[in-house]
Design a protein that fits this description.
extended
Length: 130
């Protein structure tokens, strides 16, 4: 009997936790795309740029606390001010082909935010040719 009570208690706690997570997920940034493919580019193109647009689909402001690129050839620029509910924002990512080898590349930029799912990964890729 005690075992059944413990199992029931664990199930109820799990359901409550899932409900709370679902409710808190309302504070988020929604990106139209999270991957940008530059396609085939010259390895001598220098700096090439793309933009990722997002919308704050919540009822509270979201702040991008920081952005980290997994390579020095990739530079992100992001809004420092809070993104208000319903507002759009742009994260700009620049990839520098200077001194990079030819061939396919894929670079990731990770945003850290105040949203319940605080980590958002954006990816740029392409193929540098001679």
């Amino acid at each position: 009997m005690m075992r059944r009570i413990v199992i029931l208690f664990v199930l109820v706690l799990g359901a409550m936790a899932a409900w709370a997570c679902e409710k808190n997920d309302s504070t988020r940034l929604t990106f139209g795309k999270t991957v940008h493919d530059f396609g085939e580019i010259s390895m001598h193109a220098g700096k090439i740029m793309c933009q990722f647009e997002c919308v704050n689909n919540s009822d509270s402001a979201v702040v991008i606390l920081g952005v980290l690129a997994n390579c020095g050839c990739t530079t992100p620029v992001y809004p420092k001010d809070p993104i208000q509910p319903g507002a759009t924002a742009v994260v700009q990512v620049t990839y520098d082909t200077t001194g990079r080898p030819d061939g396919e590349f894929e670079k990731e930029v990770v945003l850290h935010t105040t949203a319940p799912k605080p980590r958002i990964a954006l990816t740029v890729r392409g193929c540098a040719v001679r």
